[in-house]
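Box S2. Input/output pair 1.
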Amino acid sequence: MQHHGAVTRGRQGGLLLLVAVIQVVGIRTGGATPSRVGAAVASAAGLGQVLLLLRLRRRPVPCAAGVIGLYAVQVAAVDVVLPATCCLALWWLATGEPDRVRALRATAVGVASTLLVIVAGELLHPGPGASAAFGALVVVVALAALLRRSEQARLAAVRAEGAVAERLRIARDLHDLAGHGLSAVAVQSSTARLALDAGDQAAARRALDAVESSSRAALKEMRELLTVLRDPEETGSAPLPGLADVPALVDGLIAGGVEVRSSVTSQPVPPAVQLTAYRVVQEALTNAVRHARGSAVDVDVHVEGEELLIAVVSDGAAAPPREGASGVEGMRTRVAAAGGELHAGPTDRGWRVEVTLPMAGR
């Protein structure tokens, strides 16, 4: 970043030097030879314009106005000269003024003022000058600067939209991760306590091992997500969870005493679709454990044609999860982003989540 800033400053310095040479040395455009006093005034006005350009980045509007004013002095002293400083001032004004509306208004006023100076100079010093070409140059530069600002604003909006979408995705991942991890630890800890009360040391140890394994896995995945937040360039350095990790979710719950039956396809599935499927199964299992504790859960993930079908069914009489509070809406948003459909609702004996994901994604 420091190298890029140094290069940018170097380019600006070279540009200012070139403008200074054009504005101070090229004070004649083919008209009558200026007097010594006129040439001195024009040169001083040209230097003043360059000095104002040095501060234009900090105070765009006042400095641009000063540049155009000194350009008027220069034109009055000698003739209509190339408005190099005015073009540069208008460019930096249009692209650098933070307030978009103010930049647009100030640029329009600056263009009109510069054109007025050129017309007045042509009337004051009639001759074979290039006033029309100079005026056209000013207009073209201003329009190009406003177009560049508009494009920069569009790209910034696209980047902001992408950043918001990424934050929402990470927030959903953290929600799923934390919810499942805490639910699994709660179930496994309860199993360990009951085993200890019953004097079954072996069962208690297995449950505590499951607590440790679930905690380590949750912490590992959380660190990976936080790494992405700290440094977006790290995205993709760690493997994302997929269908191959679903058995680990199931085993963790089984170790905690939850009856889970699962069937997961071994057919190739795109990584992005696998990630969505994994998160859906993770959240559905969390809901089943949280809202229908003690019930059996069936998980089925299989490919049918060009679609991946997911079904998570809890066989319990507990109250079904509410739409907003249980993560169902989060699953629906995640599935919709992948181009799929989700249906969740009660069955005769429990709760069912069904998801259809296109293999091609979106």
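Box S3. Input/output pair 2.
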Amino acid sequence: MRETVMRGLFEGDPTAACLVGSDGAILECNAAFGSLFGFAGPGEARGARIGTLLVDAGPWRRAAEAAAGGTAPDRLEAGGRAKDGRSLLLACDLRSAADPETPGAVLAWFVDVTERRAMEREMVQAPRSQTGARLVRAIGHDLGNMMMVIRGFVEVLVRELPEGSRGRCWLAQIRTASDRAAALGGELLAAARPPDPSLEELAPAAALEACVPLLRRAAGPGVEIELRAPGGDRPTRTNRDQLEALLLALVSLAHADRPKGTRLLVEAGAPAEAGAGMVLRVTGSDPGRAWEARLPAPDPPS
């Protein structure tokens, strides 16, 4: 009887299947079951205790008792461990064997869902991770912009106060704090920066020339824009959109502080040290008034 049942249900079945006695001993199994749990073959698995192959045998015993009593339980998920030490997450279906020769025995089919559950977790967590990264980037970007404005008005106020005044000392503290906050914003942006496929080799002079129409609109009519690439025109690998956004911010700050009918000097250059990004500077009609920022270098490929 048992051999007939095993041949009909197990032979050639790609799903790991076994017949388990009421004492938890494996009476029969197919090749897929032996392979799943790391046995050399079905013969080696016979006689093993199912409880030794499961991390927690308690739920299995309760489900097996229900199945043997004629009540088919819901699909059971349980942790398993193969003989070679692999951790498994298993989905198991149980049915009564209905075999008079082995009262209380159950038929069990196991499916390894380890990879499937891992993929489901990744799919659930990915949107949260992406949302968090976008939020961190937004905070870092806004923090850097606000600190740039604060630093700009500090420079304006310094010019209004006499040398040696107490106000200048306070402004120096504000300037230091704003520099630290801007650096923190840069760290946030670097930490949350995703791999950017749009990075390209840009030469400073050529990059500035391409931005002229955009800068003229930002500066307004009657403003002369001079371009310069000091230190040569060594290309650097960067993002064109970030370059344009940073140049616009610098020109807007310089434009807000300029007298009417003035000129703006826009400079860009790659620092001497390799992989240091690009330095951008905008100077207004007052040679001592410059607005500077650094476009960070991309993270090296891992």
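Caption for Box S3: The mean pLDDT is 77. DSSP finds eight helices and eleven strands in the chain.
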